[in-house]
Amino acid sequence: MRTLFTILVASLLVLSAVPAVLAVSTSVSTGLDIDVEEFAPLVDLCGSRIVTDDNVEPWRVSDGGQYLVERINNYAFEGEKISWLVLVMDKNKIDQNIDVYATIGDSQGEGNEIEANCLRADYQSSVAKQNFDSCNAEILEEELEFNPDTMAFFECTLTVETPASMYGEYWVTVEAQDGSGLMGTMDENEFWFFNPVIALSIDGELSFDNVRPGSSSYSDTLLIGNDADAGSGVLLDMFISGTDFYDSSSSGARCPDTNQLALTNFRYFITSGAYSSFDDPRSASDPEGESYVAINYGNSFGNVGTNNPFYGTHEILQAGGPFVVGGPFGSAGYKANILVPGAEHALTFRLDLPEPCNGDFDTGSIYFWGEAI
Questions:
Q1: Residue 76 DSSP class
Q2: Are residues 183 and 247 in the same domain?
Q3: I need a labelling partner for 268 at 20 to 30 A (CA). Which of 23, 57, 154, 345 fits?
């Protein structure tokens, strides 16, 4: 009992030794400096961008305003459109002060010429979530979730203008600028050749001299080439057509029934890369068994688009399979018939001159056509 008492007394003594200052309150303060990051906008491409055809000259499969499935190189002509869906993020705020636009210029990055303003897309939450997943938005290794307070979708469409204002090679992208002047650009810059010049070249002359009636005569080989702008990548789908021939002088011509030499007396043999007329099913009709192809009539390219009568009949070479995967064979183009810039088809012509025949048939034409894909 005495031991316990001693311990209690010692505890009381310790408590009584606590300084009286504990009963008085005091405080101290310091200044606060918060520097909020000025966040430059981030621009992310969502899904894939698309190219749509104009409403003037559609090709075999793509009609006006439709996805231009035939275009496989980076060139575009007046009226054609390039479209992107982008996600813009600004951690400071995403308000109406932000400008988003498509630009073209000589170099990659920010500050190129503004060509088309983008339209803010009013997406519902479910649609926004679906599109957001395709944007792969992230900051460094941080994966982001959609936040309407700091993010917005924009639809951007650049329409190629006339050659007077858009001709040559350009870097193309989407840029954003916030109210503070900070800028960001889509990483996926594209390189385009706008309004390239399209041309054909012919190396050689088509002539038949001193042909004996009732015999076949062969021309020198002509080279028909794609002479489009170098570096443009323009692909030309090649066609051939012709007219009948006449004697321009009053010579009493007759071949064999009238003063007209019919186009049906002409045929040609073509070689191009790994393919030749032997691979063209039309050559099976050659009465001489030489695999020469007949020439169809035509002095204009006909109605452009899917109703063009040249498609499936007037190609210079129908070989190599369909150009557009999934398209109908014949109406979708032929791989071996396509010429890249600088490439050539080699054609040798044969004239099966009727008997009897008299005259100098120097008036008429054989046409070569190149349609940019």
A1: E
A2: no
A3: 57
- For 172, phi then psi, to 5°, come to -130, 135
pLDDT in tens, 182-233: 999 998 999 999 999 999 999 999 999 889 999 999 999 999 999 999 999 9
**Are 63 and 153 contained in the same domain?**
yes
Spacing of C-alpha 31 from chain mean position = 59
d(CA 259, CA 344): 35
Q: Which amino acid is at 26?
A: T
Which tokens is 202 given?
């012919």
Strand order from edge to edge, sheet including 236-242:
338-339, 236-242, 366-372
Q: Under 8 Å CB-to-CB from 100, ≥6 apart: which residues?
A: 43, 86, 88, 117, 118, 120, 154, 156, 174, 175, 176
Establish if 35 belongs to a structural domain: no
Number of domains in the chain: 2
- Please say whether the beta carbons of 43 and 174 come within 8 A: yes
User: C-alpha angle 23/25/29, rounded to 5°?
Assistant: 160
Considering the chain, what percentage of its residues have pLDDT values greater than 70?
Answer: 87
204 and 170 share a domain? no
3-state secondary structure of 132: helix
CA angle 255, 259, 263 (to 5 degrees): 65
Does the pTM surpass 0.85? The reply is: no
Any domain includes 311: yes
Q: Is 112 exposed, middle or buried (0-12, 13-18, 19+ CB in 10 A)?
A: buried
